[in-house]
Design a protein that fits this description.
Number of helices: 7
Structural class: alpha/beta
CATH class: Alpha Beta
Number of strands: 5
Shape: globular
Helix content: 25-40%
CATH topology: Rossmann fold
Strand content: 15-25%
Radius of gyration: 15 Å
Largest sheet: 5 strands, parallel
Distance between the termini: 23 Å
């Protein structure tokens, strides 16, 4: 089953949800606007170029993102649709997209199709729970770190 996988979080990692005005109020009211309208944290065309290059080296690209805390099942479905549309709008080359219940351990989502993955997530606590390989904190040198995987 060995397949190298890059696993991206969305909120605060590639999507700038937390800078969206009144984002928490929207989520509390089960409105998907912040998920649909937030800005990317990176040059998404450049990120897509790097990720597509990594795909030629055998990496699969996966998104595992949580729904809103305390969101209803229906709202989580709406969030999933909004997040998939956001990824498509910005040309993110994901092979798989999982929007799961808030708090789900992300390795449990991926373990059925990969033995090794690198989790890229802004949340240090989430990175600590990752059990399928390494983690990266998204920051200013993310592109450099990703490009090194193709070397």
């Amino acid at each position: 089953m060995e397949r190298k996988t890059l696993v991206f979080d969305m909120d605060g990692t590639i999507a700038d949800l937390y800078q969206f005005p009144d984002w928490l109020e929207y989520l509390t009211n089960e409105d998907t606007k912040p998920y649909r309208d937030c800005q990317p944290l990176y040059d998404m065309a450049k990120l897509a170029d790097i990720l597509n290059k990594l795909k030629t080296f055998g990496w699969q690209i996966v998104v595992v993102s949580w729904g809103a805390m305390n969101g209803t099942r229906e709202y989580t479905r709406q969030v999933k649709t909004a997040k998939k549309e956001w990824l498509a709008e910005y040309g993110f080359p994901a092979d798989r997209v999982h929007v799961v219940k808030y708090g789900t351990l992300k390795h449990t989502v991926c373990k059925r199709y990969t033995d090794y993955g690198i989790l890229i997530d802004d949340n240090a606590d989430v990175r600590k729970t990752w059990k399928l390989g390494d983690t990266l904190e998204p920051n200013g040198d993310l592109f450099q770190k990703l490009e090194a995987l193709a070397a």
